[in-house]
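Re: folding output
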Amino acid sequence: MKNPKKSANAEKQRRFREKQKALGKKLIRGYVTPAAMENYKELAEKTGWTDSDMLSNSLRITYAAYKNGQIRLLNQWLKEQDLKKKKQAASASPQSVPSQIEETQSEVKNGNSKGDSAQ
């Protein structure tokens, strides 16, 4: 015997999908990059848009840029932002630690360690 709750839920979902189709809406799925997810979180926080609003507005804005000959400019801006984020991440990474170690070793060798200033 089937679980009545499961079949009721499936029926409710079916009705919801039919209603959305009747309103002219289409379900679109996809995966987003980590960078896009950061953008999504910030926009959702600042605008209060739902997933549907976010996707619809994103598509409309991208289409507007395309129709107004601005898609190349939009893509260039996105690439520049990605480069800025990569540079910021690289400057905050532990790659700068070796130079800090060398400076500390040099100070200790010369008797100028930072802990000696209290004497």
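--- second protein (sequence, then structure) ---
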Amino acid sequence: MLLPDLQVVELVVETHDNKNDDAIQNLHALCLGSNLKADEARSLNATVLSNENTIEGEILGNSRTFQNGSSWVDLFVQDMHNVSNWDDVRGKATMLLEAFEKNVIDNSMTSKEEIGLLKEHLQCVLKDNNIL
């Protein structure tokens, strides 16, 4: 038996207004693949995954345009404004911070490559200067 993603579990519990029996039945349906409850649970799972992928795609797709800190702050504030509970806050903050970290690492790698190329160019210019 496969267990659903933690976000799916949280979403199922929230959609059933924290009524544990209903949420458990829905989760069983998801895990065991029974009739209508399974379709409903799969729909919830698909919704969570599509929302997560959309947000992650937006962040990764726009990470090149977020060169200054204020753009990242605006994105962070906008995403935090749309959250409904602390688990959402943690999840979105983690995702945003991971995207920010990836962006910083990518930019530092690019900078290191540029510095290496500039050093090589400087060496060539110095060599040409010595010849003259």
